[in-house]
Amino acid sequence: MIQIDEKFRKVYYQVEKALKSDYSIIIILGLRKTGKTKILQQLAEHHSGFYVDFRDYSRNSNEYYDILDRNEKLLLFDEIGYLQDFDIYLGRLPEDLAKKHKKVVLTSSSYGTLKQLAHEKLGGGRAYKIELFPLDFEEYLYFSNKIQNYKDNYLPTLDDVWGFFRLDGIPIDMRFIVDEQYMLDTFSDTYTAHVNQDGSKRDIVLTEPQYRSIIDLLAYTLNEHISVERLQGKKQIGVRELGSNVRGLKISSSLIGFANRAANKMGVDEIAKIVAFLYRNGFLFADLVQQNRSRQNPDDIVQILLSVLTVEDLKAVLNKYTLSVISPLLYTRLMINLEIMANIVCGNNDLLGLMFELAMKSEIIYKDGYMMYHYTYKYSYALREVDINYRNLLIECSLRHKKGDERSVDKVFKNIELIRVLTDKPGVFEKRDNYYLIGFPQALLMLSNNSIFDLSATKCY
User: Fold this and answer.
1) At what angle do helices 268-280 and 311-320 cross, to 10 degrees?
2) What does the pLDDT look like over 352-409, one tens digit per residue?
3) What is the tally of structural domains in the chain?
């Protein structure tokens, strides 16, 4: 029976649209705990499909073909990486489905492995690929009942932004935490999929101690250049998160303190490999400078990191590329142990500014959806920088009211029609000669629900 109050992620509607197309295979990729299983179960209920979690099956070929022989026309395959030799089955799945006149939606928490197979064996238009990211801002407002429907007219507040970062007011089963167990479960999924592949194995597989150290490295990748010294644990943990007065806090007892001790024992090549894994498996994105397209290639990052042998090698990579967590929610769910200790997520407005800029860039990444590697573009000119350069949209992110001579969003391009936005303190919305001032909570929602693209583009002379 359909629940009247049942709610759906935006990706659910993308899958429904794909099911009406000629594609017989739809792949949903995404990090652990982002809601892939829930979407498959909803599809099974609303489309009379058959749902199977391969973690609960014996995973042999006879059982697999028995599933294909079922009467249901829609099959929902969860955790396909737990099926032995699953890459062989995926390679011939289009032909098997055509014979049976069926469609399948499949997922796996082995993000990198499935993404590579989707690109290779199911590439060339053989499958429809969708990526499920952590909640965007509009989805948070929807699931926390601040809005009743997507696209509702709503003026968000600073409290709404804080609530988003904390995941306040949403169902308990959506409040994932990035902790040691989360990474060990990721380790299990990735390792199992690696073992169950029959063909080439090109995913990056870490050891269990390296997975434990991931927590530390994630904590350092918040929308700014990562220093090698901090990755090596040579800088104090918690200063950026809680402010400089952290000596009274038992930071060493936190998960980050534990991971920092583990990171101290690793070689620089191991640290680089972990960063490569995080980027390869959807935890990180690269923030690139628009005018350096030929010099900064996001597809090269993994191989460059895997070739790191010395501290100088790693410094060169981290100086060239700005890497950041894919969503502000990963960061805040990682820092939840510090919030419990200090009753705060962020220690100062500088960190809030980084979080907001990251949230805006995350929304841009979500719009491009499935990609082998995720990245955003910014634009730098002299001492000026525009934080977001996306299609015909320029956004400079700020939490405060800027004076006219401080803004730079309209000084980068000349004689080109663009939507220029400078975010401002909450409650502000003004149309200037050639740019908009928009309160940062409202700007975040407008980017999340795409209404920001309805603003008028103008030229800057």
Assistant:
1) 30
2) 888 899 999 999 999 999 888 999 999 887 767 889 999 999 999 988 887 666 667 7
3) 3
